[in-house]
C-alpha cells in the first residue's frame, strides 16, 4: 500500500517533462486553494444570513473561522512555493475533519440527541471535497479524502449508538427512521458505501487521466524539442498532420533556395583547435539563422559550415524569391560586420558566401518507416548549390541567377546599389551559360 501511494506515473520521464508536469500540478494547487477559499466564504455567508437558534454554544462560527485561517495559509503557501505531499494530505484531513466536527456540533447547537446530526444534508459536502482533490490529477489524494470521509462518518455512527448505553437509538423501521431521531444502520452504511464507490470511480478516472496528462505534457515537450531540430513550419506540419506521414508523398511548390557557406572553413577546421572551430561555427549559425527566419525562410539542413534554407517550400509564399534575396542581402551585411569584428579581436573568420535560385521544386518526405526527413528536390536546389560554389570563381560573395532576380523584382524586391549584372556566364555543372546577378562583391 505504501509503495502504491508513492508510485509515480512520471517515473522514467526526462527531468524537463517532470518539471512541466510539476508546473501543471502547482497551478492546480493554486486553483484548489482559491476554490477552498470560495467554499469557506460561501459557507460563512450562508451561516450569517440563515436563522439561528438561541443557544449558549455556537461551534459553527469557530469551525468556519479555523477553516478560513487554514485556507488563507494554504493560498499564500501555494503562491509562494510548492506544496509538499504531506501538506496536501494534512489539508485533506482538515477539510474532512472540520466538516465532520461541524456536522457533529448540530445536535449540541439545536439541543437534540446525537442521532439528530445523522439526518443533516451537510454530509453531501464531502463529495465537494473529494471532487476538489480530483483537480490535481492525483488519485492518491482523492482516495485519502474518501477514506477519511468514510472513516469519519463511521465514527459519527459509532458515537451515536454508544453515546447512551440505555438507548442506542437503532431501529429497523424505515418510517420510524425517517420521522424520528432513530438510527437505521443500513441507511448509514449506504452513505458510507456511496462515499467509497464515488471515491473509487473518481480515483480510477483520475488515475487514467493522469496518464493522459503525463503523455500530453511529454508530447508537448517533445514537440518543443522538435522545433529545435526542425524548422518550426516543419514541426507544425508534423504535429498537425491528419494522416501518418509516409515517404513518397510530396507537393510541387514555387520556392527559392538559399545556400550559405564559409569560404576556407574546411582548411581552418583542420588547423585550428576543435573548441575554436566549434565556437566559430556556432557564432556563424547564430548570426545567419535569425536572419533567415526573419525573412520567412525555413532551415532545411546544416551541412557542416553550409546552411541550406527554403522560402515558400514548407509554407507557400507569394514573395518567396524576394524574401530569399532580402535574407541574402542582410546575411552578407551581417557577415561582413562579424568578420571585421573577429579580425579586430585577433581571431580567424572566413568570408561567407551565398547564393539563391528559385523555381518549381518538389517538397516532401523521404526515407523509410524508421526515419523520415522533409526535403526539397528540383533544379533550383541544385542550381543554388552550384552558384554558391561559383562565387569563388567570380571572386564575389553573393550571386543569383537572372531569372530569380527578375522574379524577385516583380515581388517587390529592392536590390542593393552594388548589384552587377553578368551575361552568359558558364557555371560548373550547368549545361548552358547563365545570366547572373552579383549581389555582394
Topology:
Blueprint: H1 2-6, H2 15-49, H3 59-80, H4 85-104, H5 106-109, H6 125-133, H7 139-163, H8 174-179, H9 185-229, H10 232-240, E1 250-262, H11 265-271, H12 274-294, E2 298-303, E3 306-311, H13 320-344, E4 352-368, E5 371-377, H14 379-394, E6 398-401, H15 402-410, E7 420-425, E8 434-440
Helix pairs in contact: 2-3, 2-9, 3-4, 4-6, 4-7, 6-7, 6-9, 7-9, 9-10, 12-13, 13-15
Give your account of this protein's structure.
The chain has 441 residues and is of the alpha+beta class. It folds into 2 domains: 2-227, no CATH class; 248-440, Alpha-Beta Plaits (2-Layer Sandwich), CATH 3.30.70. 59% of the residues lie in helices and 15% in strands. It contains 15 helices and 8 strands. It has helices at residues 2-6, 15-49, 59-80, 85-104, 106-109, 125-133, 139-163, 174-179, 185-229, 232-240, 265-271, 274-294, 320-344, 379-394, 402-410; strands at residues 250-262, 298-303, 306-311, 352-368, 371-377, 398-401, 420-425, 434-440. Strands 1, 2, 3, 4, 5, 6, 7 and 8 form an 8-stranded mixed β-sheet that branches. Helix 12 (274-294) runs antiparallel to helix 13. The protein is rod-shaped and about 115 Å long. Residues 1-7 have low confidence and may be disordered.
Short description:
This protein is of the alpha+beta class. It has helices at 2-6, 15-49, 59-80, 85-104, 106-109, 125-133, 139-163, 174-179, 185-229, 232-240, 265-271, 274-294, 320-344, 379-394, 402-410; strands at residues 250-262, 298-303, 306-311, 352-368, 371-377, 398-401, 420-425, 434-440.
